[in-house]
Amino acid sequence: MSNDHSNVPVISVDEEYSGYRRKYGHEDPQSVNWCRHRKHFFILSSAGKPIYTRYGDESRISGYTGVIQAIVSFFVDAEDSIRCINAGNHKFVFLLKGPLYLVAVSRTNESETQLRDQLNYLYNQILSVLTSTQLTRIFEQRINYDLRLLLGGTEPFLDNLATSMSDEPGFMLGSIQCVRMNKELRDKIGSILQIVKSKDLLYAMLIANNKLITLLRPKRHSLHSADLHLIFNMVNGSSTFRSAESWTPICLPKFNNKGFLHAYVCYITGNVCLLLISPDKDKFFELSDAKSIIVEELTSCNALQAIEEVSQSEGYSIADVGAAGLRHFIYKSRKHVQYTSPTFMAPYNDPHEKQKLFKLYRYTHDRMHSRIRPLKVHYYVSPTETILGWITSTFELYAAFGPLISKSALTNSSHTLLKWIKKEEENLFILNSQVF
Amino acid sequence: MSTTNNRQNAQASGKLYQFKLVLLGESAVGKSSLVLRFVKDQFDDYRESTIGAAFLTQTISLDDNTTVKFEIWDTAGQERYKSLAPMYYRNANCAVVVYDITQPSSLDKAKSWVKELQRQADPNIVIALAGNKSDLNARRAIDSEEAQAYATDTGLLFFETSAKTAVNVNELFTSIAKKMPLEQLAANSRGRGSGLKQRGVDLTSPTPANNCSC
User: Fold this and answer.
1) Other Cβ atoms within 10 Å of A99 Cβ, number
2) B32 contacts on A by Cβ (under 8 Å)
3) A237, A250, B43, B170: which could form a disulfide with A160 (CB 3.0–4.6 Å)?
């Protein structure tokens, strides 16, 4: 690829951005280190202007985005659209969304579908700060627009999302995780949220460490897991919410990709974040008052302390399950669109081992969800693990055992696990979210 | 998180005035840093961009009988939030417009905010211009005299501040409080305006608000 930038407009970014330091922001796109990253994401406009790169500085990748734009146009001219290029260990996956082109370049062994899902999450992240209406209008007015002028300050969210998609199974599974807690405590919190329901309030939720504690919603509007991921990513992606009460517009694309909702965000303890979402941009003080009521009620029944303690604990260990030979698992309740998983203990507390396990889960997930030949059960033995994938009408299970386990022991152990989950179900999952 | 600071504990009786203050200015000039220095006496070298707007309160004593509580809207400086700004300054009693002394463009942006405030906000609004990052004097791009002259011509309070070293931060907010026409506001401005107004104006309760005493 050409590294001649002289005839490409280089956009000055100097101090436009905040104090947030991007970990790989100063990497030279022509350097060996930059090329060595296992998974790149690029977002560009249909005119070829760089909008986002996971690594390096957007203003220095216009050589690459120009080439991407040319490749895409070549197929568009033939009334076709490019989806994927396989080149050795690398996959180039394309997602074309009107004025935006999103591209993943990966040697992580993730499948084309998984990578395209990830590009969709990134696209939704952009919609969540702009809405599709604004995005379309901007590029209708000026096809050459530099979208970074409007996205300034959202890099932490895109970066955080890119990392989370590799670390958290929720994105692949299209589901979210709840804080495991006593059902009575969760119900008590839910009934306290019910006190503040009003026409100003659309959703109320408590979140700790990217997990949902409880959710209050109108009967007619459930909250899609993809929108919840965006909310979690927003709360998790910026430390600024910890220092004040915040009030911000947010578009939840699955709820309505054309308009903004308004989110009141406030940490009520060190770990626990309260989110109140309103359709009305003028309701900050009403929601701030609602927060005071919630905190007061939670404090008076000692629930606040209890939530904080639960949210500080690491979750549960595989030993709690008592299934012989079971090393780790991910269980998704298909009905509740929630998953549960034990903490990563040895050997998986080592990041490298954890990534290897994830790779096996991803491989199993991809095989089972293959569009051509979907599978109900998948049994796979690697040199280090045996992975069982099992899909029924009610759940999806991915379980890791040692490589030498017998099939009968594996079956017994899996049934023990399912029994344990059934017994613990009401503490592991939100079975009935609070509605009004 | 309404934090009241120790300074308030000194006074037990007297008048409490409550004012809405809005911070405006280009992104990354240090609006949030100024507020956090003022409210929590904290500073973070690598603070991330504010998302939307942040709301904080701080109470200061002007003298034994006068306490001023600021309700502060710290707005995000990015372009995409521009259209939301009127919601925050519409009912503001005072504003701090911030620029970065090392960034010439940020003073231009500050001037355009001042114009907008003078055109659209409450006609009695008290505006202060703050040239932040005065600790970076070696990289200064805007002369104090130039900014001071502009502030004087336009009728603004003016300070060069450093959120990092805390220079002039409390002075900035205290002099705003002192410039507020306290009695007049207390008498006149009850219950005006619309939008994010609820606690927006004044209150002359004889007892100070007692949110928490950390």
Assistant:
1) 18
2) 240, 243
3) A237
Q: Which of A281, A313, A345 is the last residue of a domain?
A: A313
Please name the residue of chain B whose CA is at the shortest distance from the CA of residue A150: B80
Percent of chain A with pLDDT over 90: 86
Residues of chain B neighbouring A150 (CB-CB closer than 8 A): 78-80
Within this chain, do residues A82 and A212 fall inside the same structural domain, yes or no? Answer: no
Tokens for A397, please give them: 């299970």
Let me know: does A49 contact A144? Beta carbons within 8 Å. yes
Close Cβ partners of A44 (under 8 Å, ≥ 6 residues apart)? A50, A51, A65, A68, A69, A100, A101, A103
To the nearest whole Å, the CA of A274 is away from the closest chain B CA by: 12
d(CA A183, CA A186): 5
* A153 and A22 inside one domain: yes
Taking CA B205 as the corner, what is the angle to CA B201 and CA B210, rounded to the nearest 5 degrees? 95
Provide the pLDDT confidence category of residue A433 given band limits of 50, 70 and 90: confident
Answer yes or no: is A7 within a domain: no
Assess whether A162 and A284 both reside in one domain: no
Residue A268 backbone dihedrals phi, psi, to 5 degrees: -95, -15
Asked whether residue A31 falls in the same domain as residue A169, the answer is yes
Q: pLDDT tens digits, residue range A120-159? A: 999 999 999 999 999 999 999 999 999 999 998 899 999 9
CA–CA distance, A390 with A379 (Å, rounded to integer): 9
pLDDT at B186: 59
Q: Domain containing B114: what range?
A: 14-188
Is A41 within 8 Å of A94 (Cβ atoms)? Answer: no
Q: Do residues A168 and A280 both lie within one domain? A: no
Sign (positive or negative) of CA dihedral A80, A84, A137, A10: negative
Taking the C-alpha atoms of residue B90 and residue B80, their distance in angstroms, rounded to an integer, is: 18
Q: Same structural domain for residues A322 and A266?
A: no
Q: Give one DSSP letter per residue of A184-238, joined into a string.
A: HHHHHHHHHHHHT--TT-SEEEEEETTEEEEEEE-TT----HHHHHHHHHHHHH-
Share of chain B above pLDDT 70, in %: 79
Q: Which domain holds residue A141?
A: 17-173
Q: Do A244 and B56 touch (CB under 8 A)?
A: yes
d(CA B104, CA B106): 5
Name the pTM for this structure: 0.89
For chain B, the domain total comes to 1
Q: How many domains does chain A have?
A: 3
Among residues A262, A278, A313, which one ends one of the domains?
Answer: A313
Distance from CA of B1 to the nearest CA of A (A): 6
Query: pLDDT digit string (tens) for A391-431?
Result: 999 999 999 999 999 999 999 999 999 999 999 999 999 99
Under an 8 A CB cutoff, do A156 and B199 touch? no
Q: Answer yes or no: is A373 within a domain.
A: yes
**CATH at residue B52:** 3.40.50.300
- Min distance B113 CA to chain A CA atoms (Å): 17
Q: What is the pLDDT of residues B62-102, one digit of tens each?
A: 988 899 999 999 999 999 999 999 999 999 999 999 999 99
Task: State how far the Cα of A154 lies from the Cα of A145, in Å rounded to an integer.
Answer: 17
Q: Is B8 within the bounds of a domain?
A: no
Question: Looking at residue A158, which CATH number applies to its domain?
Answer: 3.30.450.70
Task: Give the Cα separation of B169 and A274 in Å (integer).
Answer: 31
Do residue B46 and residue A19 have CB atoms under 8 angstroms apart?
A: yes
